[in-house]
Write a structure and sequence with these properties.
This protein is an alpha+beta fold. It has 23 helices and 15 strands. The strands form 3 sheets. It has a 6-stranded antiparallel sheet with strand order 3-2-1-6-5-4, with helices on both faces. A 5-stranded mixed sheet has the order 12-13-11-14-15. It has a 4-stranded antiparallel sheet with strand order 7-10-9-8. The chain starts with 13 loop residues before the first helix and ends in a 5-residue tail after the last helix.
Length: 639
């Protein structure tokens, strides 16, 4: 890293973000996120360039660490195998250990080893690990047959990612049947060499297609060499013991280096980095957990042991409470919570001070988060207040203010009026409930890229309407969300969708008035805790809506019948009109239409299939008659 030193990024947080990813061993995909977030937030080119450079260096460090860990695992496995060679005199046990470790290290389904039988002139299965087929475990291979024969002939490793589709080696019925019984697909084989002679083959195989990497081939070759050494003479055993000593020294160096890396970062620097990059309280707890080798978490003041918490605040130090350590998180005279450490029976002065410093950093983060949230909520409320009161008619300035809050006034929005339902014990409780409603609505607006403001004893929200969504669905979701957040029913009335708010800010006030009317209608109808828009109230919605959507009402009420008449050239609308005019009497209706009574019955049955079987109930019939009259006004009678 020292040879590729990077100048600190703006705000000094580019390296910190990636150091944090390195410390928690994040996936490769996670390293793209800081750059994507910076671009999405419109950060400067210098900031993005710094993040890109930091990402490249972090990925290089990650790759180096992964390589070291992989090499440490390989060396450890080889070390253990060599130890077996030095300590065990049972050849079968040594070969079994080699095959087991080869399978484990390469992560394959099966590993096995074949040896040459000079007496019979073929090779036989000596050791298997992970095999389930008896036929496979008893296989004998003629010289030059199968993948093992190709390895023995060339004295080189060979790999196939699909055994039965590979034509490079000689297939036989016996071998293919055994491989098929075992279900093997991808096979890697490396030769066991004694000098220039091949005495067997070591295999690793999977029951699915797989590409073996060069490093894995090299690792299996190393195990093959150890297997050959187990079969070799005493002088080769002596050389193996020498290799053991070398591997043990290398393994110790790697372990020592890993310990140094794990303890290299000073806790104060880590906490400072968290603050600079905008980390949260849970990030602080996670970092301190690693440093103190215990479990640290943040808890609210009400959930912490009261006596220990008060003692910690009074003394300014972490205090012992049973099997836990409590460090108060306080700012001035306000208790914000506590950091709790579990898993440490005793703390030395350095570790105790570390926990106390972490509590101080946590209090700073909580205050900063609270201030930022309050400021943003105020700004969102001010913009929505200006739109409702039409104080600013400059579209450019309105758009700029909205963009800074990640809102888009040119998108389609719905104005929602929200009000608490349920009695309050006193004025203080009611005021507290309204503050909770305002806080929940502000949070919802911030997460949905909308706006929120307190008004008329309740809350007004301006939320974008997603594709395929309706004002009714948005009102219902908002009522449920706010009710859950404040733990009491919240009623929400919604306006019809509105657009062009920057160019026509007066639209917001009109939409809010419509939402208020829907809210009042819900209360009158005895539907507290519900959400609705004008379109949900039938013909009553015509009175509630700011703009009378006559066509929409007619379409919702008798649209299927009108469409049927238009497509088929029928007279269902005329029949319905006559049916209602004749007091819903089929006999009088047939006289008015000069048709047979069966014709009237058939037409009414068709209407029922189009509008639903309840179309003649009093409530539905009233709406349908109003829709028929409005339809006649819009479409002149063609009779």
């Amino acid at each position: 890293m020292s040879r590729d030193h990077v100048q600190p990024a703006p705000n000094g947080s580019a390296e910190a973000e990636y150091l944090e990813l390195l410390t928690r061993d994040a996936s490769v995909e996670a390293y793209e996120r800081p750059v994507l977030v910076a671009r999405a937030e419109g950060r400067s080119a210098d900031r993005i360039a710094a993040l890109e450079q930091a990402k490249r260096l972090a990925l290089r460090v990650r790759a180096e660490l992964e390589g070291r860990r992989r090499r440490e695992a390989e060396l450890s496995a080889l070390f253990e195998t060599a130890h077996d060679l030095a300590g065990l005199r049972d050849l079968d046990a040594v070969l079994q250990a080699i095959v087991q470790r080869a399978r484990s290290l390469l992560g394959t389904d099966v590993a096995y080893l074949t040896l040459h039988d000079p007496a019979r002139g073929d090779t036989y299965m000596r050791v298997t690990e992970g095999s389930v087929s008896a036929r496979f475990q008893q296989l004998r291979l003629g010289m030059g047959e199968g993948l093992g024969g190709l390895v023995a002939q060339t004295t080189r490793p060979y790999v196939t990612d699909d055994y039965f589709e590979d034509a490079r080696f000689q297939h036989t019925l016996t071998i293919d049947s055994g491989v098929s019984d075992e279900g093997l697909v991808a096979i890697l084989g490396v030769p066991l060499m004694l000098g220039p002679h091949v005495i067997g083959v070591l295999f690793a195989a999977d029951r699915r297609a797989r590409v073996f990497e060069r490093e894995q081939i090299a690792v299996l070759g190393s195990f093959a060499a150890l297997a050959a050494a187990a079969i070799d003479t005493a002088n080769l055993l002596t050389e193996t013991r020498a290799a053991l000593a070398e591997l043990e020294r290398a393994n110790q160096i790697i372990r020592d280096g890993s310990a140094v890396i794990e303890r290299a970062s000073d806790v104060h620097d880590r906490l400072a980095e968290l603050v600079l990059r905008g980390g949260g309280v849970h990030d602080v707890a996670a970092a301190v957990s690693e440093v103190l080798d215990g479990t640290v978490w943040f808890t609210e003041a009400g959930a912490a042991p009261a006596e220990a918490l008060e003692a910690s605040r009074a003394e300014g130090h972490a205090v012992r409470h049973g099997g836990e350590w409590i460090a108060a998180v306080a700012a001035g005279g306000e208790l914000l919570g506590a950091l709790v450490l579990r898993g440490q029976r005793a703390l030395d002065p350095v570790d105790q001070r570390t926990l106390e410093r972490a509590a101080m950093v946590t209090s700073l983060l909580l205050l900063a988060r609270r201030s930022a949230a309050e400021a943003e909520h105020r700004v969102r409320g001010e913009l929505l207040d200006d739109l409702l009161d039409v104080r600013d008619r400059d579209p450019r300035l309105l758009r700029e203010r909205a963009v800074r809050l990640h809102a888009d006034l040119d998108a389609t929005h719905v104005v929602l009026a929200a009000r608490l339902d349920g009695p309050a014990a006193d004025a203080d409780e009611e005021a507290a409930a309204r503050r909770r409603l305002w806080s929940a609505a502000s949070h919802l607006a911030a997460t949905r890229h909308g706006l929120a403001a307190a008004r008329d004893g309740g809350t007004v929200l301006l939320l974008p309407l997603g594709a395929g969504d309706t004002a009714t669905e948005l009102a219902g979701r908002t009522a449920r969300h706010l009710g859950t957040a404040v733990h009491q029913p919240v009623t929400v009335g919604a306006s019809a969708p509105v657009t062009g708010l920057a160019a026509h800010p007066e639209t917001v006030a009109a939409a809010y008035a419509e939402g208020r009317r829907c809210l009042d209608a819900l209360h009158l109808l005895g539907r507290p805790g519900d959400g609705a828009a004008a379109e949900d109230f039938g013909f009553l919605g015509l009175l509630l809506a700011g703009e009378r959507d006559v066509a929409g009402f007619v379409g919702r009420t008798i649209g299927p019948v009108a469409s049927y008449d238009e497509r088929r050239g029928t007279d269902l609308l005329r029949t319905m009109d006559a049916y209602f005019a004749c007091g819903m009497s089929p006999a009088r209706t047939k006289d008015a239409l000069h048709v047979h009574v069966n014709t009237v019955a058939q037409r009414l049955e068709r209407v029922g299939r189009l509008l639903g079987e309840d179309w003649q109930t009093p409530a539905r019939a009233l709406e349908i008659q109003l829709a028929l009259r409005l339809h006649r006004l819009a479409v002149p009678d063609r009779r």
